[in-house]
Amino acid sequence: MRKIKEILRLKWEAGLSARQIAHSLSISHSTVLDMLRRAERAGFTWPLPDIDDATLEAKLYPGNPDPKRPRPEPDMEYIHRELRRKGVTLQLLWWEYKQAHPDGLQYSQFCERYRRWHEKLDVVLRQSHRAGEQMQVDFAGQTVPVVDQQTGEVRQAQIFVAVLAASNYTFAKAVWTQDRHSWITAHCDAFEFFGGVPEVVVPDNPKAGVTRACRYEPDLNPTYAEMAAHYGTVVIPARPHKPRDKGKVENAVLVVERWILAALRNRTFFSLEELNQAIAEAIQRLNNKPFQKLEGSRRSLFETLEKPALKPLPSQRYEFAEWRKGKVNLDYHVEVDHNYYSVPYQLVHHEVDIRLTVSTVEILHNGKRIASHPRAPGRGHYITQRQHRPTAHQQYLEWTPARLVSWAESVGPHTTKVVTRILETKPHPQLGYQSCLGLMHLGRIYGLDRLEAASGRALGCGTPCYRSIKSMLAKNLDQVPLSTSPEELVTPSHENLRGPGYYAQE
Protein backbone atom coordinates (compact mmCIF):
# COMPACT_ATOMS: atom_id res chain seq x y z
CA MET A 1 0.00 0.00 0.00
CA ARG A 2 1.25 3.41 -0.90
CA LYS A 3 2.18 5.77 1.94
CA ILE A 4 0.44 8.70 0.28
CA LYS A 5 -1.25 10.24 3.29
CA GLU A 6 1.86 9.97 5.45
CA ILE A 7 4.00 11.62 2.78
CA LEU A 8 1.56 14.51 2.45
CA ARG A 9 1.35 14.89 6.24
CA LEU A 10 5.10 15.00 6.71
CA LYS A 11 5.44 17.53 3.92
CA TRP A 12 2.50 19.89 4.56
CA GLU A 13 2.05 19.52 8.30
CA ALA A 14 5.54 18.71 9.61
CA GLY A 15 7.38 20.75 6.95
CA LEU A 16 10.03 18.12 6.19
CA SER A 17 12.01 18.10 2.99
CA ALA A 18 11.52 15.42 0.38
CA ARG A 19 14.86 13.84 1.30
CA GLN A 20 13.95 13.73 5.00
CA ILE A 21 10.60 12.14 4.17
CA ALA A 22 12.28 9.52 2.00
CA HIS A 23 14.72 8.64 4.78
CA SER A 24 11.92 8.49 7.36
CA LEU A 25 9.66 6.19 5.32
CA SER A 26 12.47 4.12 3.72
CA ILE A 27 11.43 4.98 0.19
CA SER A 28 13.26 6.63 -2.65
CA HIS A 29 13.66 10.39 -2.94
CA SER A 30 12.24 10.34 -6.49
CA THR A 31 9.08 8.55 -5.32
CA VAL A 32 8.43 11.28 -2.75
CA LEU A 33 8.91 14.05 -5.31
CA ASP A 34 6.66 12.31 -7.83
CA MET A 35 3.87 11.86 -5.30
CA LEU A 36 4.06 15.51 -4.15
CA ARG A 37 3.87 16.74 -7.73
CA ARG A 38 0.85 14.51 -8.39
CA ALA A 39 -0.92 15.81 -5.28
CA GLU A 40 -0.36 19.41 -6.33
CA ARG A 41 -1.69 18.71 -9.83
CA ALA A 42 -4.75 17.03 -8.36
CA GLY A 43 -5.42 20.14 -6.22
CA PHE A 44 -5.08 18.53 -2.81
CA THR A 45 -4.31 20.63 0.26
CA TRP A 46 -3.77 19.81 3.91
CA PRO A 47 -5.70 18.65 5.76
CA LEU A 48 -6.99 16.16 3.24
CA PRO A 49 -10.74 15.74 2.74
CA ASP A 50 -12.44 12.63 4.06
CA ILE A 51 -11.26 10.19 1.42
CA ASP A 52 -10.12 6.56 1.53
CA ASP A 53 -6.76 5.35 0.30
CA ALA A 54 -8.12 3.66 -2.83
CA THR A 55 -9.89 6.80 -4.00
CA LEU A 56 -6.87 8.96 -3.18
CA GLU A 57 -4.58 6.64 -5.19
CA ALA A 58 -7.01 6.62 -8.13
CA LYS A 59 -7.00 10.45 -8.22
CA LEU A 60 -3.21 10.66 -8.04
CA TYR A 61 -2.70 7.80 -10.52
CA PRO A 62 -5.70 8.04 -12.86
CA GLY A 63 -4.19 5.70 -15.45
CA ASN A 64 -3.87 2.79 -13.04
CA PRO A 65 -6.39 -0.05 -13.36
CA ASP A 66 -8.60 -1.27 -10.63
CA PRO A 67 -6.31 -2.70 -7.94
CA LYS A 68 -8.65 -5.63 -7.52
CA ARG A 69 -8.16 -6.64 -11.13
CA PRO A 70 -5.13 -8.95 -11.74
CA ARG A 71 -2.26 -7.34 -13.63
CA PRO A 72 -0.27 -9.06 -16.39
CA GLU A 73 2.62 -11.05 -14.99
CA PRO A 74 6.05 -10.50 -16.55
CA ASP A 75 7.93 -13.38 -18.19
CA MET A 76 10.51 -14.08 -15.53
CA GLU A 77 12.60 -16.52 -17.60
CA TYR A 78 12.83 -13.94 -20.37
CA ILE A 79 13.85 -11.26 -17.87
CA HIS A 80 16.44 -13.56 -16.29
CA ARG A 81 17.91 -14.38 -19.70
CA GLU A 82 17.93 -10.78 -20.93
CA LEU A 83 19.68 -9.52 -17.80
CA ARG A 84 22.75 -11.44 -18.90
CA ARG A 85 23.10 -9.25 -21.96
CA LYS A 86 25.52 -6.37 -21.73
CA GLY A 87 23.88 -3.10 -20.73
CA VAL A 88 20.44 -4.60 -19.98
CA THR A 89 18.93 -3.56 -16.62
CA LEU A 90 15.74 -4.28 -14.72
CA GLN A 91 14.58 -0.71 -15.31
CA LEU A 92 14.90 -1.12 -19.08
CA LEU A 93 13.02 -4.43 -19.01
CA TRP A 94 10.30 -2.88 -16.85
CA TRP A 95 9.94 -0.03 -19.32
CA GLU A 96 9.54 -2.52 -22.18
CA TYR A 97 7.04 -4.46 -20.06
CA LYS A 98 4.99 -1.30 -19.44
CA GLN A 99 4.99 -0.47 -23.13
CA ALA A 100 3.40 -3.82 -23.82
CA HIS A 101 1.18 -3.76 -20.72
CA PRO A 102 0.24 -0.21 -19.63
CA ASP A 103 -1.87 -1.64 -16.83
CA GLY A 104 1.00 -3.78 -15.59
CA LEU A 105 3.06 -3.74 -12.42
CA GLN A 106 4.84 -0.66 -11.19
CA TYR A 107 8.62 -0.71 -11.08
CA SER A 108 8.95 -1.58 -7.38
CA GLN A 109 6.47 -4.44 -7.73
CA PHE A 110 8.20 -5.60 -10.89
CA CYS A 111 11.57 -5.80 -9.11
CA GLU A 112 10.07 -7.54 -6.09
CA ARG A 113 8.41 -10.19 -8.24
CA TYR A 114 11.66 -10.92 -10.03
CA ARG A 115 13.58 -11.11 -6.75
CA ARG A 116 11.15 -13.68 -5.34
CA TRP A 117 11.28 -15.73 -8.55
CA HIS A 118 15.07 -15.56 -8.61
CA GLU A 119 15.35 -16.94 -5.08
CA LYS A 120 13.60 -20.13 -6.15
CA LEU A 121 16.33 -21.05 -8.64
CA ASP A 122 19.21 -23.36 -7.85
CA VAL A 123 22.06 -21.76 -5.97
CA VAL A 124 24.43 -22.12 -8.94
CA LEU A 125 22.16 -19.85 -10.99
CA ARG A 126 21.81 -17.06 -8.48
CA GLN A 127 24.79 -15.11 -9.70
CA SER A 128 24.02 -12.82 -12.58
CA HIS A 129 26.65 -12.65 -15.30
CA ARG A 130 26.66 -10.64 -18.49
CA ALA A 131 27.05 -12.52 -21.74
CA GLY A 132 30.67 -12.78 -22.78
CA GLU A 133 31.88 -11.51 -19.42
CA GLN A 134 33.49 -14.51 -17.68
CA MET A 135 35.09 -17.84 -18.35
CA GLN A 136 35.77 -19.73 -15.13
CA VAL A 137 38.37 -22.52 -15.14
CA ASP A 138 39.59 -25.23 -12.79
CA PHE A 139 40.88 -28.79 -12.61
CA ALA A 140 38.54 -31.54 -11.48
CA GLY A 141 39.46 -33.40 -8.33
CA GLN A 142 38.80 -36.73 -10.01
CA THR A 143 41.30 -38.27 -12.44
CA VAL A 144 40.92 -40.90 -15.17
CA PRO A 145 43.33 -43.86 -15.55
CA VAL A 146 44.99 -44.37 -18.93
CA VAL A 147 46.74 -47.69 -19.64
CA ASP A 148 49.90 -48.00 -21.72
CA GLN A 149 49.27 -50.96 -24.05
CA GLN A 150 52.94 -51.85 -24.36
CA THR A 151 54.07 -51.67 -20.73
CA GLY A 152 50.77 -51.93 -18.87
CA GLU A 153 51.65 -48.81 -16.89
CA VAL A 154 48.64 -46.88 -15.60
CA ARG A 155 48.82 -43.12 -15.67
CA GLN A 156 46.26 -40.76 -14.16
CA ALA A 157 44.99 -38.06 -16.52
CA GLN A 158 43.93 -34.68 -15.11
CA ILE A 159 40.63 -33.13 -16.25
CA PHE A 160 40.55 -29.41 -17.11
CA VAL A 161 37.11 -27.74 -17.01
CA ALA A 162 36.07 -24.34 -18.39
CA VAL A 163 32.58 -22.81 -18.37
CA LEU A 164 31.06 -19.59 -19.68
CA ALA A 165 29.31 -17.99 -16.74
CA ALA A 166 26.25 -16.56 -18.50
CA SER A 167 25.19 -19.67 -20.44
CA ASN A 168 26.91 -22.47 -18.46
CA TYR A 169 28.32 -23.72 -21.78
CA THR A 170 30.97 -26.22 -20.69
CA PHE A 171 34.31 -27.46 -22.02
CA ALA A 172 36.43 -30.28 -20.63
CA LYS A 173 39.74 -31.82 -21.68
CA ALA A 174 42.14 -34.43 -20.33
CA VAL A 175 45.82 -33.54 -19.86
CA TRP A 176 48.68 -35.44 -18.30
CA THR A 177 49.68 -32.98 -15.62
CA GLN A 178 48.65 -29.70 -14.02
CA ASP A 179 51.90 -28.01 -15.00
CA ARG A 180 52.16 -24.65 -16.70
CA HIS A 181 52.31 -25.99 -20.25
CA SER A 182 49.15 -28.10 -19.79
CA TRP A 183 47.39 -25.19 -18.06
CA ILE A 184 48.11 -22.72 -20.86
CA THR A 185 47.40 -25.19 -23.66
CA ALA A 186 44.03 -26.10 -22.12
CA HIS A 187 43.07 -22.40 -22.03
CA CYS A 188 43.88 -22.03 -25.72
CA ASP A 189 41.81 -25.13 -26.52
CA ALA A 190 38.90 -23.73 -24.51
CA PHE A 191 38.97 -20.42 -26.42
CA GLU A 192 38.94 -22.31 -29.71
CA PHE A 193 36.11 -24.56 -28.51
CA PHE A 194 33.98 -21.51 -27.61
CA GLY A 195 34.94 -19.77 -30.83
CA GLY A 196 35.77 -16.53 -29.02
CA VAL A 197 37.31 -14.90 -25.98
CA PRO A 198 35.52 -13.60 -22.85
CA GLU A 199 36.34 -10.34 -21.11
CA VAL A 200 37.62 -12.03 -17.94
CA VAL A 201 39.11 -15.41 -17.04
CA VAL A 202 38.54 -16.46 -13.42
CA PRO A 203 40.82 -19.28 -12.19
CA ASP A 204 41.68 -20.47 -8.74
CA ASN A 205 45.23 -19.75 -7.55
CA PRO A 206 47.21 -22.65 -9.08
CA LYS A 207 50.99 -22.49 -9.10
CA ALA A 208 50.89 -22.94 -12.87
CA GLY A 209 49.15 -19.57 -13.27
CA VAL A 210 49.61 -17.50 -10.11
CA THR A 211 53.04 -16.76 -8.70
CA ARG A 212 51.77 -15.23 -5.47
CA ALA A 213 48.18 -15.53 -4.28
CA CYS A 214 46.71 -12.40 -2.74
CA ARG A 215 43.20 -11.25 -1.91
CA TYR A 216 43.78 -7.85 -3.50
CA GLU A 217 46.78 -7.91 -5.89
CA PRO A 218 47.77 -11.44 -6.95
CA ASP A 219 50.89 -11.88 -9.07
CA LEU A 220 50.36 -13.80 -12.30
CA ASN A 221 52.96 -16.01 -13.86
CA PRO A 222 54.51 -14.10 -16.83
CA THR A 223 53.51 -16.85 -19.27
CA TYR A 224 49.91 -16.77 -18.07
CA ALA A 225 49.80 -12.97 -18.31
CA GLU A 226 51.32 -13.08 -21.79
CA MET A 227 48.73 -15.61 -22.93
CA ALA A 228 45.92 -13.40 -21.61
CA ALA A 229 47.38 -10.36 -23.39
CA HIS A 230 47.65 -12.36 -26.63
CA TYR A 231 43.92 -13.17 -26.53
CA GLY A 232 42.91 -9.71 -25.29
CA THR A 233 41.41 -10.91 -22.02
CA VAL A 234 42.09 -10.28 -18.33
CA VAL A 235 42.85 -12.85 -15.63
CA ILE A 236 41.27 -12.14 -12.24
CA PRO A 237 41.99 -15.04 -9.85
CA ALA A 238 39.43 -15.90 -7.20
CA ARG A 239 40.21 -14.76 -3.70
CA PRO A 240 42.09 -17.38 -1.67
CA HIS A 241 39.71 -19.74 0.13
CA LYS A 242 36.69 -18.15 -1.60
CA PRO A 243 35.34 -20.86 -3.96
CA ARG A 244 32.10 -18.93 -4.49
CA ASP A 245 34.07 -16.42 -6.54
CA LYS A 246 34.10 -19.11 -9.22
CA GLY A 247 30.90 -20.89 -8.32
CA LYS A 248 30.03 -21.60 -11.95
CA VAL A 249 33.07 -23.78 -12.57
CA GLU A 250 32.75 -25.41 -9.14
CA ASN A 251 29.31 -26.60 -10.21
CA ALA A 252 30.56 -27.46 -13.71
CA VAL A 253 33.27 -29.68 -12.18
CA LEU A 254 30.58 -31.57 -10.23
CA VAL A 255 28.48 -31.93 -13.37
CA VAL A 256 31.46 -33.22 -15.37
CA GLU A 257 32.37 -35.71 -12.64
CA ARG A 258 28.80 -36.99 -12.26
CA TRP A 259 27.57 -36.98 -15.84
CA ILE A 260 30.76 -37.60 -17.81
CA LEU A 261 33.53 -39.18 -15.76
CA ALA A 262 31.15 -41.41 -13.84
CA ALA A 263 29.60 -42.55 -17.12
CA LEU A 264 33.07 -43.46 -18.44
CA ARG A 265 34.15 -45.32 -15.29
CA ASN A 266 33.77 -48.77 -16.82
CA ARG A 267 35.70 -47.97 -19.99
CA THR A 268 39.42 -48.57 -20.40
CA PHE A 269 41.40 -45.97 -22.28
CA PHE A 270 44.77 -46.65 -23.88
CA SER A 271 45.72 -43.13 -24.92
CA LEU A 272 45.02 -39.55 -24.01
CA GLU A 273 43.57 -38.95 -27.48
CA GLU A 274 41.05 -41.78 -27.01
CA LEU A 275 39.99 -40.35 -23.64
CA ASN A 276 39.57 -36.84 -25.04
CA GLN A 277 37.44 -38.17 -27.88
CA ALA A 278 35.08 -39.80 -25.36
CA ILE A 279 34.98 -36.62 -23.25
CA ALA A 280 34.19 -34.50 -26.32
CA GLU A 281 31.21 -36.69 -27.19
CA ALA A 282 29.93 -36.57 -23.61
CA ILE A 283 30.38 -32.79 -23.44
CA GLN A 284 28.29 -32.38 -26.56
CA ARG A 285 25.47 -34.37 -24.96
CA LEU A 286 25.76 -32.34 -21.75
CA ASN A 287 25.56 -29.00 -23.55
CA ASN A 288 22.52 -30.16 -25.52
CA LYS A 289 20.69 -31.43 -22.42
CA PRO A 290 17.62 -29.23 -21.58
CA PHE A 291 17.58 -27.25 -18.34
CA GLN A 292 15.25 -28.44 -15.59
CA LYS A 293 13.93 -25.04 -14.45
CA LEU A 294 14.70 -22.84 -17.46
CA GLU A 295 13.85 -23.02 -21.11
CA GLY A 296 16.45 -24.21 -23.57
CA SER A 297 19.86 -25.76 -22.97
CA ARG A 298 23.45 -24.70 -22.49
CA ARG A 299 23.98 -24.77 -26.24
CA SER A 300 20.86 -22.73 -27.08
CA LEU A 301 21.78 -20.09 -24.51
CA PHE A 302 25.33 -20.05 -25.84
CA GLU A 303 24.27 -19.67 -29.47
CA THR A 304 21.70 -16.94 -28.85
CA LEU A 305 23.17 -15.12 -25.88
CA GLU A 306 26.85 -15.73 -25.26
CA LYS A 307 28.53 -16.40 -28.59
CA PRO A 308 27.65 -13.00 -30.15
CA ALA A 309 29.13 -11.25 -27.10
CA LEU A 310 32.52 -13.00 -27.20
CA LYS A 311 35.58 -11.26 -28.59
CA PRO A 312 36.97 -12.75 -31.81
CA LEU A 313 39.93 -15.10 -31.67
CA PRO A 314 43.32 -13.68 -32.72
CA SER A 315 44.68 -14.65 -36.11
CA GLN A 316 47.27 -16.98 -34.57
CA ARG A 317 47.13 -19.36 -31.65
CA TYR A 318 49.30 -18.47 -28.69
CA GLU A 319 52.69 -20.20 -28.76
CA PHE A 320 53.64 -21.42 -25.33
CA ALA A 321 56.63 -19.57 -23.92
CA GLU A 322 58.53 -20.15 -20.71
CA TRP A 323 59.98 -17.16 -18.84
CA ARG A 324 63.18 -17.20 -16.83
CA LYS A 325 65.59 -14.80 -15.18
CA GLY A 326 69.24 -14.60 -16.17
CA LYS A 327 72.44 -12.61 -15.76
CA VAL A 328 74.81 -11.57 -18.52
CA ASN A 329 78.24 -13.12 -18.11
CA LEU A 330 81.54 -11.33 -18.63
CA ASP A 331 81.73 -12.73 -22.16
CA TYR A 332 78.34 -11.00 -22.90
CA HIS A 333 76.50 -14.33 -23.12
CA VAL A 334 73.52 -15.66 -21.17
CA GLU A 335 73.32 -19.33 -20.20
CA VAL A 336 70.11 -21.17 -21.05
CA ASP A 337 69.95 -24.96 -20.57
CA HIS A 338 73.76 -25.23 -20.83
CA ASN A 339 73.87 -23.28 -24.07
CA TYR A 340 75.06 -19.68 -24.40
CA TYR A 341 73.39 -16.84 -26.27
CA SER A 342 74.90 -13.41 -26.93
CA VAL A 343 73.51 -10.01 -25.95
CA PRO A 344 74.97 -6.51 -26.52
CA TYR A 345 78.23 -6.30 -24.57
CA GLN A 346 77.07 -3.12 -22.78
CA LEU A 347 74.75 -5.30 -20.66
CA VAL A 348 77.51 -7.33 -18.96
CA HIS A 349 76.50 -8.17 -15.35
CA HIS A 350 72.91 -6.93 -15.94
CA GLU A 351 69.80 -8.94 -15.03
CA VAL A 352 67.67 -9.93 -18.04
CA ASP A 353 64.41 -11.74 -18.76
CA ILE A 354 64.52 -14.80 -21.01
CA ARG A 355 61.55 -15.96 -23.09
CA LEU A 356 61.81 -19.53 -24.36
CA THR A 357 59.70 -21.16 -27.03
CA VAL A 358 60.23 -24.45 -28.81
CA SER A 359 62.28 -22.79 -31.54
CA THR A 360 63.50 -19.40 -30.25
CA VAL A 361 65.28 -17.73 -27.35
CA GLU A 362 64.35 -14.09 -26.76
CA ILE A 363 66.22 -11.95 -24.24
CA LEU A 364 64.64 -8.79 -22.82
CA HIS A 365 65.98 -5.97 -20.65
CA ASN A 366 63.59 -3.53 -18.99
CA GLY A 367 60.76 -4.93 -21.10
CA LYS A 368 62.62 -4.34 -24.41
CA ARG A 369 63.81 -7.18 -26.58
CA ILE A 370 67.58 -6.93 -27.00
CA ALA A 371 68.37 -10.27 -28.67
CA SER A 372 66.66 -13.13 -30.45
CA HIS A 373 68.33 -16.45 -31.33
CA PRO A 374 67.28 -19.83 -32.71
CA ARG A 375 67.20 -22.32 -29.86
CA ALA A 376 70.25 -24.56 -29.94
CA PRO A 377 69.90 -28.35 -29.58
CA GLY A 378 72.02 -30.29 -27.14
CA ARG A 379 74.50 -28.62 -24.80
CA GLY A 380 77.62 -26.49 -24.90
CA HIS A 381 76.78 -24.37 -27.97
CA TYR A 382 77.68 -20.70 -28.29
CA ILE A 383 75.24 -18.65 -30.40
CA THR A 384 76.79 -15.25 -31.03
CA GLN A 385 75.72 -12.32 -33.18
CA ARG A 386 78.54 -10.16 -34.55
CA GLN A 387 76.94 -6.85 -33.60
CA HIS A 388 76.85 -7.88 -29.94
CA ARG A 389 80.66 -7.91 -29.70
CA PRO A 390 82.80 -4.83 -28.98
CA THR A 391 84.46 -3.38 -32.05
CA ALA A 392 87.88 -4.66 -30.98
CA HIS A 393 86.55 -8.19 -30.57
CA GLN A 394 84.88 -8.06 -33.96
CA GLN A 395 88.11 -7.07 -35.66
CA TYR A 396 90.09 -9.65 -33.72
CA LEU A 397 87.86 -12.55 -34.61
CA GLU A 398 87.69 -11.61 -38.24
CA TRP A 399 91.43 -12.36 -38.77
CA THR A 400 92.61 -15.74 -40.09
CA PRO A 401 96.15 -17.02 -40.86
CA ALA A 402 95.58 -16.60 -44.57
CA ARG A 403 94.33 -13.06 -44.11
CA LEU A 404 97.26 -12.15 -41.85
CA VAL A 405 99.77 -13.48 -44.39
CA SER A 406 97.97 -11.58 -47.15
CA TRP A 407 98.30 -8.37 -45.15
CA ALA A 408 102.00 -9.02 -44.54
CA GLU A 409 102.59 -9.52 -48.27
CA SER A 410 101.11 -6.10 -48.88
CA VAL A 411 103.74 -4.64 -46.52
CA GLY A 412 106.83 -6.42 -47.81
CA PRO A 413 108.82 -9.67 -47.97
CA HIS A 414 110.49 -9.21 -44.60
CA THR A 415 107.20 -8.66 -42.83
CA THR A 416 105.80 -11.70 -44.64
CA LYS A 417 108.64 -13.87 -43.32
CA VAL A 418 108.17 -12.53 -39.78
CA VAL A 419 104.39 -13.17 -39.80
CA THR A 420 104.86 -16.65 -41.23
CA ARG A 421 107.51 -17.44 -38.60
CA ILE A 422 105.26 -16.20 -35.78
CA LEU A 423 102.29 -18.26 -36.96
CA GLU A 424 104.44 -21.39 -37.23
CA THR A 425 106.27 -21.11 -33.93
CA LYS A 426 103.53 -20.03 -31.49
CA PRO A 427 102.11 -22.92 -29.41
CA HIS A 428 98.51 -21.82 -30.05
CA PRO A 429 97.05 -20.06 -33.12
CA GLN A 430 95.42 -17.31 -31.05
CA LEU A 431 98.78 -16.38 -29.58
CA GLY A 432 100.05 -15.94 -33.13
CA TYR A 433 97.00 -13.81 -33.97
CA GLN A 434 97.76 -11.52 -31.06
CA SER A 435 101.39 -11.05 -32.09
CA CYS A 436 100.46 -10.34 -35.72
CA LEU A 437 97.79 -7.87 -34.65
CA GLY A 438 100.52 -6.21 -32.58
CA LEU A 439 102.61 -5.83 -35.74
CA MET A 440 99.65 -4.25 -37.49
CA HIS A 441 99.38 -1.81 -34.64
CA LEU A 442 103.04 -0.91 -34.98
CA GLY A 443 102.51 -0.35 -38.69
CA ARG A 444 99.76 2.18 -37.93
CA ILE A 445 102.02 4.01 -35.45
CA TYR A 446 105.37 4.05 -37.26
CA GLY A 447 104.33 3.43 -40.86
CA LEU A 448 104.55 0.34 -43.05
CA ASP A 449 107.96 1.25 -44.50
CA ARG A 450 109.61 1.40 -41.08
CA LEU A 451 107.82 -1.81 -40.08
CA GLU A 452 109.27 -3.55 -43.14
CA ALA A 453 112.75 -2.25 -42.31
CA ALA A 454 112.48 -3.32 -38.67
CA SER A 455 111.26 -6.75 -39.78
CA GLY A 456 114.32 -7.12 -42.01
CA ARG A 457 116.64 -6.11 -39.16
CA ALA A 458 114.88 -8.56 -36.80
CA LEU A 459 115.38 -11.36 -39.31
CA GLY A 460 119.03 -10.41 -39.59
CA CYS A 461 119.42 -10.50 -35.82
CA GLY A 462 117.54 -13.75 -35.50
CA THR A 463 114.74 -12.21 -33.40
CA PRO A 464 111.65 -12.16 -35.65
CA CYS A 465 109.09 -11.38 -32.93
CA TYR A 466 106.80 -8.56 -31.86
CA ARG A 467 108.86 -7.44 -28.84
CA SER A 468 112.09 -7.18 -30.83
CA ILE A 469 110.49 -5.22 -33.69
CA LYS A 470 108.74 -2.90 -31.23
CA SER A 471 112.07 -2.18 -29.47
CA MET A 472 113.83 -1.47 -32.76
CA LEU A 473 111.14 0.95 -33.87
CA ALA A 474 111.10 2.72 -30.49
CA LYS A 475 114.92 3.19 -30.63
CA ASN A 476 114.96 4.00 -34.35
CA LEU A 477 117.26 1.07 -35.00
CA ASP A 478 115.32 0.25 -38.14
CA GLN A 479 116.94 3.30 -39.71
CA VAL A 480 120.48 2.06 -38.97
CA PRO A 481 121.62 -0.53 -41.53
CA LEU A 482 123.43 -3.67 -40.49
CA SER A 483 127.10 -3.35 -41.63
CA THR A 484 127.75 -7.03 -41.58
CA SER A 485 125.76 -10.16 -41.64
CA PRO A 486 125.20 -12.07 -38.39
CA GLU A 487 127.82 -14.67 -39.40
CA GLU A 488 130.47 -12.00 -39.72
CA LEU A 489 129.90 -10.49 -36.34
CA VAL A 490 132.77 -11.19 -33.81
CA THR A 491 132.97 -10.55 -30.13
CA PRO A 492 134.79 -7.27 -29.43
CA SER A 493 138.01 -7.30 -27.42
CA HIS A 494 137.68 -6.07 -23.84
CA GLU A 495 139.54 -6.74 -20.57
CA ASN A 496 136.35 -7.73 -18.79
CA LEU A 497 135.49 -10.35 -21.42
CA ARG A 498 137.40 -13.49 -20.34
CA GLY A 499 136.31 -15.95 -22.99
CA PRO A 500 136.18 -19.78 -22.78
CA GLY A 501 139.96 -20.16 -22.47
CA TYR A 502 140.16 -18.28 -19.19
CA TYR A 503 139.09 -21.31 -17.16
CA ALA A 504 141.59 -23.62 -18.89
CA GLN A 505 144.72 -21.66 -17.86
CA GLU A 506 145.23 -23.33 -14.49
Brief characterization of the structure:
Helices cover 41% and strands 14% of the residues. Strand 3 and strand 4 form a beta hairpin.
Q: Any overview of this molecule?
A:
- By secondary structure, this protein is of the alpha+beta class.
- The chain has five domains: 57 residues; 45 residues, no CATH class; 176 residues, Nucleotidyltransferase, domain 5 (2-Layer Sandwich), CATH 3.30.420; 69 residues, no CATH class; 90 residues, no CATH class.
- The chain is built from 18 helices and 15 strands.
- The strands form four sheets. Strands 1, 2, 3, 4, 5 and 8 form a six-stranded mixed beta sheet that branches. Strands 9-12-13-14 form a four-stranded antiparallel beta sheet, with no helix packed on it.
- Strand 10 and strand 11 form a beta hairpin.
- The longest helix has 18 residues.
- The mean pLDDT is 82.
